[in-house]
Amino acid sequence: MKLSIYYYRFTAVAFLFFTLFSCNKVEQVAPDYEKLLVSSEWVYSEEVSLDIINAGVVNLVLGSTTLAFDTTGIVVSNLFTIDIENNWELNADKTSIIIDKGLSSEDEWIIVSLTETELIFKDFDDDDASGGALPFTYTDGKPLELKFTH
Predict the structure, then answer these.
(1) Most exposed: 42, 47, 116, 132, by fewest CB within 10 Å?
(2) Helix and strand element counts for the chain (H, E)
(3) CATH number at residue 140
(4) What's the CA gap between 47 and 28, in Å, rounded?
(5) According to the model, what pLDDT value does residue 117 have?
(6) pLDDT of residue 51
(7) How many structural domains does the chain have?
(8) Where are the beta strands (DSSP E) in 4-73?
(9) Residue 95 sits in which domain range?
(10) Closest CA to 114 of 50, 42, 61, 51
(11) What is the pTM of this model?
């Protein structure tokens, strides 16, 4: 009789131990970046990587800018009440938004953060003067890190 009690206790403790401490990995589901981008219009909030004076200049220029991505691959940026329409797509690993792929106005926005309410991306402005979605030139070679919200 004593043997069976110890046996059941041991089995119960072993089962509990392996259940609690097993190395099952919980799979993270990657966010659907396309769904997040097209959910609604994005409104410029601020430049987050520059010093206060230079960020102030960028904020003044881009202050009322909006971005509207659609499911057909069109993004409309509104800068100073002028709509600029471009093509967009996510790169293969969903770390960048490619604007006007293959055209002279091609631009890459490197995604820093994308949630339901916030889009932050780095824009290296080397080719924006050629008519990209955000035609803004910043001359010191640093990327602009732009924050949009909705």
Answers:
(1) 116
(2) 3, 8
(3) 2.40.128.270
(4) 30
(5) 96
(6) 72
(7) 1
(8) 42-47, 66-69
(9) 33-149
(10) 42
(11) 0.72
